């Protein structure tokens, strides 16, 4: 350590700062020394970013020429047969049993002295996937009598698998459905039921004196 007033110490510090901060002028270095506070700066070298080469895919014209998304008729028939093999009524009976237990828990047991309007209010907001429904009334006679398990519920239709292992798409509009559980029979007027399952859970239904198809 050099004494504070030493000329050599001042020369050393000045040279050291000059080497450490080559971009600064002598006047600025002298100003920093006069303030007795020195901050050594470090200059980072800017890294040049390497551009990534994008993999070029096929154009729409090339995909059409290569027939990438075309399925041969024989493969279509095989795929359709495989789909029919998967959709079986018996496969969804466990789902129906789960749905019945879900409704019993939702309605606190479905006891004989339970109020029908209370059960009806619960069913209006319940998830119907797994329920067995029957079309009792319809403006289209071909729909009357269709019975099966609801596989999917959309805003306007039910997808139902029947005991004959047939997948039916039944519109809600102009149809009346019935479902039975532990002696309670409820009717769903599809024209007033044009909602998704997620929307029904938050909707407030109003009682109406008369309901038409």
TrEMBL record:
<keyword id="KW-0597">Phosphoprotein</keyword>
<dbReference type="GO" id="GO:0005730">
    <property type="term" value="C:nucleolus"/>
</dbReference>
<dbReference type="InterPro" id="IPR023534">
    <property type="entry name" value="Rof/RNase_P-like"/>
</dbReference>
<dbReference type="InterPro" id="IPR002730">
    <property type="entry name" value="Rpp29/RNP1"/>
</dbReference>
<dbReference type="InterPro" id="IPR036980">
    <property type="entry name" value="RNase_P/MRP_Rpp29_sf"/>
</dbReference>
<comment type="similarity">
    <text>Belongs to the eukaryotic/archaeal RNase P protein component 1 family.</text>
</comment>
<dbReference type="Pfam" id="PF01868">
    <property type="entry name" value="RNase_P-MRP_p29"/>
</dbReference>
<dbReference type="GO" id="GO:0006364">
    <property type="term" value="P:rRNA processing"/>
</dbReference>
<protein>
    <recommendedName>
        <fullName>Ribonuclease P protein subunit p29</fullName>
    </recommendedName>
</protein>
<keyword id="KW-0539">Nucleus</keyword>
<dbReference type="InterPro" id="IPR016848">
    <property type="entry name" value="RNase_P/MRP_Rpp29-subunit"/>
</dbReference>
<dbReference type="GO" id="GO:0000172">
    <property type="term" value="C:ribonuclease MRP complex"/>
</dbReference>
<dbReference type="GO" id="GO:0033204">
    <property type="term" value="F:ribonuclease P RNA binding"/>
</dbReference>
<comment type="function">
    <text>Component of ribonuclease P, a ribonucleoprotein complex that generates mature tRNA molecules by cleaving their 5'-ends.</text>
</comment>
<dbReference type="GO" id="GO:0030677">
    <property type="term" value="C:ribonuclease P complex"/>
</dbReference>
<keyword id="KW-0819">tRNA processing</keyword>
<dbReference type="GO" id="GO:0001682">
    <property type="term" value="P:tRNA 5'-leader removal"/>
</dbReference>
<comment type="subunit">
    <text>Component of nuclear RNase P and RNase MRP ribonucleoproteins. RNase P consists of a catalytic RNA moiety and 10 different protein chains; POP1, POP4, POP5, POP7, RPP14, RPP21, RPP25, RPP30, RPP38 and RPP40. Within the RNase P complex, POP1, POP7 and RPP25 form the 'finger' subcomplex, POP5, RPP14, RPP40 and homodimeric RPP30 form the 'palm' subcomplex, and RPP21, POP4 and RPP38 form the 'wrist' subcomplex. All subunits of the RNase P complex interact with the catalytic RNA. Several subunits of RNase P are also part of the RNase MRP complex.</text>
</comment>
């Amino acid at each position: 350590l050099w004494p504070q007033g030493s000329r050599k110490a001042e020369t050393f510090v000045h040279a050291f700062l000059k080497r450490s901060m080559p971009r600064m002028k002598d006047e600025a270095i002298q100003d920093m020394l006069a303030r007795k506070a020195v901050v050594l700066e470090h200059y980072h070298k800017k890294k040049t970013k390497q551009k990534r080469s994008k993999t070029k895919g096929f154009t729409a014209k090339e995909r059409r020429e290569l027939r990438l998304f075309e399925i041969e008729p024989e493969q279509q028939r095989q795929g359709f047969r495989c789909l029919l093999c998967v959709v079986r009524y018996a496969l969804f009976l466990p789902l129906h049993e789960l749905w019945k237990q879900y409704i019993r828990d939702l309605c606190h047991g479905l006891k004989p002295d339970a109020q029908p309007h209370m059960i009806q209010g619960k069913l209006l907001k319940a998830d119907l996937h797994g329920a067995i429904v029957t079309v009792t009334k319809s403006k289209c006679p071909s729909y009357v009598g269709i019975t099966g398990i609801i596989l999917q519920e959309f805003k306007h239709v039910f997808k139902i698998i029947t005991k004959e292992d047939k997948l039916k798409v039944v519109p809600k509009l102009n149809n009346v459905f019935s479902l039975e559980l532990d002696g309670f029979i409820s009717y769903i007027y599809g024209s007033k039921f044009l909602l998704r399952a997620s929307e029904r859970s938050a909707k407030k239904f109003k009682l109406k004196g008369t309901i038409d198809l």
